[in-house]
Each structure stands twice: as C-alpha cells, then as structure tokens.
Amino acid sequence: MRALRFRALGRCLERLNGRFVTGLDLGTTASDMDQIRVETAYVTDTTGSLGAKDDFTADMTAYGVYIGIVTSLRHEGVAALQGISVAVQGLGKVGYALCRYLHAAGARLIVADVVPERVQRALVQFSGAISADPARIHAADCMVFAPCALGGVITPARGILYAPDYVLNAGGIISTACELQGAGPDLIRQKVAGIAGTLGKVYAEAARSDISTLEAADRLAEAILSTGQASQ
C-alpha cells in the first residue's frame, strides 16, 4: 500500500512537468523516493544518490541549523559554543545530527524526544547531556532552543532572538539543489555555510527597519522572488 501511494505521488509530480521536485523529508525513506522515480524523474534522494547516502540531506540541514546557531550567538556577543546550554527538541535524523555538531563544539546539551530510546542513545553518546520532558523542553534553562520536531512550537515571545526557521532549515534544499547541478559534498557544505551570511542580512534588515526577524526574512525573500520573476 505504501509503495502504491508513492507511485501515485510520482504520477502527480509528472503532471506538474517539473514545476515541483520532491525529495526526502519527515518520515520518508530512499525506498519511497525510488517508488516515485518509477513514475517521474522529478524526485531526488533515491537509492545511490548523494542525498540518500548516510542521511546526507538531513546532515546538511543540521549543519545549516548549527551554522545559524553560531551566527545568532555571535550576533548576541557570544563568541563560542563552549559551555553554552542548548536544548534540542526532537532527536530524529536532523536533531541527532545537530547534537553531534553542538557536542563537538563544546555545547551543554539538553535533549528530548517522544521516543525514549533516542534519548537514551543521546545521553550515552554525548557526555554531559541531560534529558527533559518533550512537552516542557521549551521552558528549559538554556541560552539556545532548537526545535527539531514538528512545527508550531515557537509562539510570539519577548526578549528572544528568533532565527527564522526557513532560513536555518535551508541546508537540506540547498544540498538537493546543488546535487541536481552536479555539485559534490565539499562544495555543498560550503554553500550551506552561506546560511551565516543570509541570517546576518536578516538581522541587519530587522534592526534597520525596526521589524521582527521573521518580517525581515519575508521581506528579503520576497525581494529575491520578485527579482527572479522580473528577469524571466
């Protein structure tokens, strides 16, 4: 039944004639992408591709989030992650990979997941990590909160620097787009690191125009889209 559903999705994508290309995301596998490939070429992360190997797409998403956290801390005058408490909500492919980057940089991890086995694995692998209730981790005593679960976690709050999610999460789509253009892992990682510059522009625009960082991100994105449309 699962295979048939992804085959049906492939037929829908084929009718869009390239206006939309799909790939791995929450709850899907390379095998699912293989089923889509039976019906259309407008799919990435199939078996044997760079994106599907060793969860590369998820790792690049996590790397982009890590870069965004470092950039945000520097914006707040914090030079390094060493000793900084970071709460990570969700230990799926992206959340767990993010923990690896953060732990390697010396961060103090607070982790949570609805699957207890994932939490135990993290506590064993990342020395010094502590666990929290998944429903309450947003209230943990930390400097950085990284929600890596389903959406709708962040609500309006005062005194918090918000790094817009679609800026930080761009690593995966950057990776996919670059792979489609024939880029290798080193160049892709370099491109994902460019999230730091994008986020810097968001913070600068927010300060200059006295608007929220989300409004600033939307404004910059809309400007890019309008420029692209004008050039067509």
Supply the key terms.
single chain, Rossmann fold, 7% strand
Q: What share of residues is helical?
A: 40-55%
The largest β sheet comes out as: 4 strands, parallel
**Strand and helix order:** HHHEHEHEEHHHHH
CATH architectural grouping of the domain at 77-160: 3-Layer(aba) Sandwich
- Taking pLDDT < 50 over at least 5 consecutive residues as the criterion, the unreliable ranges are none
Number of strands: 4
CATH topology (level 3) name of the domain at 77-160: Rossmann fold
The helix/strand class is: alpha/beta
Which CATH class of the domain at 77-160 is shown?
Answer: Alpha Beta
Strand order of the largest sheet: 3-2-1-4
For the termini, the CA-CA separation is: 41 Å
Protein name: Glutamate/phenylalanine/leucine/valine/L-tryptophan dehydrogenase C-terminal domain-containing protein
InterPro entries: Aminoacid_DH-like_N_sf, Glu/Leu/Phe/Val/Trp_DH_C, Glu/Phe/Leu/Val/Trp_DH_bac/arc, NAD(P)-bd_dom_sf
Organism: Paenibacillus silvae
Pfam families: ELFV_dehydrog
